[in-house]
Amino acid sequence: MPRETLIKQEVEGVKRREIFVRYDRCVGCRSCELACAVSHTASRDLFEAILRGEKSKKRIYVDQIDQIKAPAVCRHCEEAPCVAVCVTGAMQRREDGVNIVDLFRCIGCWMCALVCPFGAVSRGEGKAIKCDRECVDEQGIPACVRACHTGALVFKTVEEFEADRRREVVTSLK
Fold it and tell me: What pTM does this model have?
């Protein structure tokens, strides 16, 4: 789904979908990281990217803390601390609600990384790098979500995700 369509839907009141993490389902395979990095290459194909020597940075990070695997992905906060603290205005909120980095303005001061409560900002050639949702397919699904075979990453509206969680709780009580 083109970004223009996503922007139009947001303006028309269609609920925006977010990436939610189901930590209990993550096995730490890092398929999401690979899919994210590949989707940010010119070819958008793993083998072509390797043959061309393209090196793209991932924008999702799977960390392991004890036995828990924890994907860290930008939540595109409405009141984003990274946008608020950026002294050059490099961190910006697009019309569709996605927070992005303008690499021409970024000076690599890392204030955004310091204030991000999710650890979703990383270093990319001296500049901040984070999820930009430029990896969506024709249905509007981000590459990391498409690549997650265990369902640890889901792309839904807040209301859909909450309803799913409530159904799971009720089902577990039976």
Answer: 0.83
